Amino acid sequence: MHIIRDHQFVTPEDRGASVAIGNFDGVHLGHQSVIAQTRDAAPDAPLGVLTFEPHPREYFAPAAPPFRLMRPNSRAHRLEKLGIERLYELNFNASLAGLSPEEFARNVLADGLGVRHVVVGADFCFGKGRSGNADDMVRFGREMGFGVTIAQLMARSDKVVSSTAIRNALSHGQPREAAAMLGHWHRIEGEVIGGEQRGRELGYPTANMSMDGLHLPKFGVYAVLVDVLEGPHAGSYHGAASVGVRPMFDGEQPNIETFLFDFSGDLYGAILSVGLVEYLRPEMKFDGLDALIAQMGSDCAQARDILSAL
């Protein structure tokens, strides 16, 4: 997959793609349907996704609470698995944000990327002040020489599949509901960082990862599937993870701490992908370390049972 970050500097081989446009946060089933329609619309053209970095919501409200389901590199990995050949991850800045809908269609899509076909959702808005809509895109495509398909929103059990609905499920400790809309387990991906090594002292050494910039699932303990993506320990494992602030130790910064079952080795600096499978219990403060250790043993036994049934 080739990643292009500036519509003004595009090589000839990166032009002429059939492109799905959107933020693709989570790359859920609705996104996957849009990508499938994009492939079908021009099967002989390179398959592309056009998205923005930073997310426009982050650009316009940088102080708002984190909301992203995945970081850019995780999104790129997921899109590559779906067969995306061209990822147009354009820098969202004042210049791009200031384009009118017609200027965006002409300068970015037609002249810049030379798209063959565009697929957008029925609720798609674009251009300065989000003043353009999907019907406008159809008109601009007709005028500027590229095809346009409007993809209808996907629903599941009378609920629209959306990144917002997935965030709500995760906030309520319902990772299986989130997975049903995602088409895959919700995964937190990142580098293993140094911690205070309390887990090692308690007999449960954990791999610690930052949650900075990501939507926070309901705090508590989860049964998880873990992929170590690189290094000598690369592979897939079962485990239990704690998401939150560690109230037993007066923590403040949310993170995720994962204990891998039947694993021995050093994971510092490795990239992990932790899939949330089932919520086991909320965070809590115990009356001493013995009670905490006993509960961790119970958590791990419960997680093993759940994961063995998958």
Number of structural domains: 2
Biggest sheet strand line-up: 1-4-3-2-5-8
Mean pLDDT: 93
How many individual helices? 10
**Coarse morphology:** elongated
Task: Give the helix level as a range of percent.
Answer: 25-40%
Q: What does the model show?
A:
There is one protein chain. The chain has helices at 29-41, 56-60, 72-81, 94-97, 101-113, 134-144, 163-171, 175-182, 198-202, 289-308, and strands at residues 2-4, 18-21, 47-53, 86-91, 117-121, 125-126, 132-133, 147-151, 155-156, 159-160, 186-191, 207-210, 220-228, 235-244, 255-260, 271-281. The protein has a 6-stranded parallel beta sheet, sandwiched between helices. The radius of gyration is 22 Å and the shape is elongated. The two termini are 31 Å apart. The chain has 2 domains: 2-153, Rossmann fold (3-Layer(aba) Sandwich), CATH 3.40.50.620; 176-308, Elongation Factor Tu (Ef-tu), domain 3 (Beta Barrel). Strand 9 and strand 10 (159-160) form a beta hairpin. With 310 residues, it is α/β, with parallel strands linked by helices.
In short:
The protein is of the alpha/beta class. It is built from ten helices and 16 strands.
